[in-house]
Amino acid sequence: MSAGGHPSTATTSNKTTPERGCAMNRMSGETNLSGSARVASQLPSTLSVALSINGEPVNTEVDTRLTLLDFLRERARLTGTKKGCNRGECGTCTLLVDGRRVNACMILMASLESRRVTTIEGLAATGQLHPVQEAFIDQDAFQCGFCTPGQIMSAVGCIDEGHANDPAEIREWMSGNLCRCSAYPQIVAAVRAAAEALS
Ligand code: FES
Ligand code: FES
Questions:
Q1: Which atom of ligand 1 lies at the shortest distance from residue 93's CA?
Q2: Are residues 90 and 101 located together in one domain of the fold?
Q3: Could you tell me the distance, in angstroms and rounded to a whole number, from the CA of residue 67 to the centre of ligand 2?
Q4: Is the pTM of this model over 0.90?
Q5: Distance from the alpha carbon of residue 96 to the mean position of ligand 1, in angstroms
Q6: Is ligand 1 within 6 A of the CB of residue 67?
């Protein structure tokens, strides 16, 4: 009875609160939010991009939020590039864009128009291992191997940049690539050996 005794009060209260809330929302910026949402809805959610991957031309339509790493692994089926942290901290996804080292997890496909991407699969495209790959085998420079594609791609970039002249320099310029197994001494030895082989 008491619950039914105050229906009018409850109704009044329930009607008033949301109406007041709507008015406050309108006054405090709902119009701006709607404006932002309107602008966002006018932006394209997909984009055409033409690039080359390991020497092959690729023309594709991509979600504007798609990273190069996810495109390679999930659409191009190039799973040699590994996903570790997915936020630019571990270097596991390192590859080359126009010959320079980048973290594929931090690059949007939409930004790669006319760019040249080289992945670990592209290093031995002719069937002959790259000297850095040979050196990693010779020096036993991996344990679990998960970081290895990124280490090798980073080493290729490091040597091309001229930053592989001694172990200290190699450690500094390869410091963005983490190896959870701590194969660092062998990795440094492999990079140095490859640098000498390529000089
Ligand atoms: S997965 Fe890209 S930096 Fe770790
Ligand atoms: S070899 Fe295992 S993380 Fe580097």
A1: 2
A2: yes
A3: 23
A4: no
A5: 14
A6: no
Structural domain range at position 164: 46-198
Residues having CB within 6 Å of any atom of ligand 2: 142-148, 179-181, 183
In tens, the pLDDT along 137-177 reads 999 999 999 999 999 999 999 999 999 999 999 999 999 99
* Phi-psi region at 33: left, alpha or beta (left = phi > 0; alpha = psi -120 to 50): alpha
Which residues, in sequence order, are bridge partners of residue 100? 97
User: Which tens digit of pLDDT belongs to each residue from 42-52?
Assistant: 778 999 999 99
| CB of residue 103 inside a 6 A radius of ligand 1 | yes
Q: Which two tokens stand for residue 28?
A: 């405090």
Distance of CA 28 to the CA centre of its chain: 38
Asked if residue 19 and residue 72 are part of one domain, the reply reads: no
Domain check: are 170 and 119 in the same one? yes
180 CB near ligand 1 (under 6 Å):
no
Distance 30 CA to ligand 1 centre (A): 38
Residues 37, 55: one domain?
no
C-alpha of 128 from chain center: 28
**CA-to-CA distance for 136 and 195, rounded, in angstroms?**
12
Q: How many CA atoms lie within 13 A of 9 on its CB side?
A: 5
Q: Which CATH number belongs to the domain containing residue 146 in this structure? A: 3.10.20.30
Regarding whether 3 and 98 lie in a shared domain, the answer is no
